[in-house]
Structure formats: structure tokens, C-alpha cells
Amino acid sequence: MTRKLVAGNWKMHGSRAANEPLLATIHQGRPYDCDVAVCAPFPYLAEVALAFAGSELRWGAQDCSSHEQGAYTGEVSAAMLAEFGCRYAIVGHSERRQYHGETDEAVAAKTAAALANGITPIVCVGETLAQREAGQTEEVVKRQLAAVIHVNGHCISEIVVAYEPVWAIGTGKTATPEQAQAVHAVLRAQLHHAASEHAAAIKILYGGSMNAANAAELLAQADIDGGLIGGASLKAPDFLQIISAAAR
Ligand code: 13P
Question: Which residues are identified as catalytic?
Fold first, then answer.
């Protein structure tokens, strides 16, 4: 069994006053029997890095540019993040696809930029409620992952995938363990096709209203290798409970 990964995605939340006790509590609870990371907004990354310094805890960004450098106002390159020891970058989160028009091709290019700089991309895929109801779930997630594989096939074993059904994000409506496992199995098969013997080691996280109460059941599924946690990663006791569910 692969060691699980629990990654917090703070989204656009946090403040210096709130971050400090949250990070201190996460640090105090270690060591953990799973990998743990926090993906915070850019201005707070130095604070997270400092709080986790010298420990096995990791930190990551919520996005990175597909460009190396240049006249791209407001963007942050993977090389800049790597200079500070950034371990992960979330790419293709549904909120970026939805509000910033990120296409499958853009997500593939961001994945390539992260990999080129030694940062593990957490590649998000997931269907909307309308797509699920139309029976398109499999087709949508396969198309999203295929674009990433097409550009990054040679090093696809270096990525982390996160299945985040859009209808489950921030809604309190979690996919059932069976629904999640079914999609994870589809993604695993696709990775197997692209990376054969390495596919089993590629982590596929579930994200979407994962919380202290439902984490254990989701994480017990054969192809769920961890969680990408939004709201519950902002509450130390909830985040720690999810971590302990993953360490079982
Ligand atoms: P919630 O856990 O708040 O539903 O968010 C999930 C998510 O989008 C993580 O990236």
C-alpha cells in the first residue's frame, strides 16, 4: 500500500493571526504516518515554510505559471517556488478552470512547468453535477487527465492526481466512497495505460467535502491514496483527524 498524502488547500483563506496557531498545531502533532502538506496563498508560503522548517511536513502553492519567466503580470513561476523549497503545486483546480478559464491544455502546460522545476504537481480533475447527471463523468475526467498525459507522458509517474467532483466542493455533499472509488479506478486504469508498472505508485487523492467524519471510509477505498482538503484544513482538530484516518 502506498503511503497516503493529506494536503490542505487553504484556497483564499487565512490571516497571519489565524495561520500561526493552525500551523503550530499541525507541527506539534507530528510525526505522522502519512505525508502531510499545506497549500497556502502565495503571501503566506514563507510563513508555512518557516513553521515547517526542519520537519518532514511539506508545503505547496495553489497554482503556478506555465511560463518560465517574462511579462506575465501577477503570475508566479515554478522556478521561483522551487527556489524556496516548494514541494507541491496544485494545478487545474476546478475553481481555476471555472473562474480563470484554464483549459486542459493550460493545465498540461502548468504540470510540465512544475515537473521541470522539481515540484510535484497535484493535478485536479472532476466533473460538474450536470456532467454527472448526463452520464459523462468518466469521459470528462479521462479527457482532463489525457491532456496532461499527452504532454507529460514521459514523467507521468511523478504527478499526483486529485479527483474532485465539482458538485462536492465546498457543498458538504461528499461523493460516496463507492462513487469516488469507481472514478479513481478509471483514473488508475488510464495511468496504468500510460505508465504501466508505475501506475500503482501514483497517488490519486480524493477532494470534495472530505471531513473528520467521512475521511476514514473514503480513505479505506482501494484506489484512494489520500485527500485534498479545503474547508476542513482550516480547522486544526478536523485536519488532524483526517491525517490520523490516513495514517491507519
Ligand atoms: P472542500 O474540502 O472545502 O470541499 O474543498 C475541496 C477542494 O476543493 C480542495 O481542493
Answer: 93, 164
- Give the rounded distance of the alpha carbon of 227 from its chain centre: 7
- Atom 7 of ligand 1 has which residue's CA nearest to it? 230
If you measure from the C-alpha of residue 114 to the centroid of ligand 1, how many angstroms do you get, rounded to a whole number? 21
- Other Cβ atoms less than 10 A from the Cβ of 16: the count is 9
Nearest atom, ligand 1, residue 211 CA: 2
Q: Are 25 and 238 in contact (CB under 8 A)?
A: no
The pLDDT value recorded for residue 74 is 97
Is 104 in a helix, a strand, or coil? helix
Query: What's the pLDDT tens digit per position in 135-152?
Result: 999 999 999 999 999 999
Q: What are the CA-CA distances from residue 229 to residues 123, 150, 210 (Å)?
A: 14, 27, 6
Q: Give the 3-state secondary structure of residue 92.
A: coil
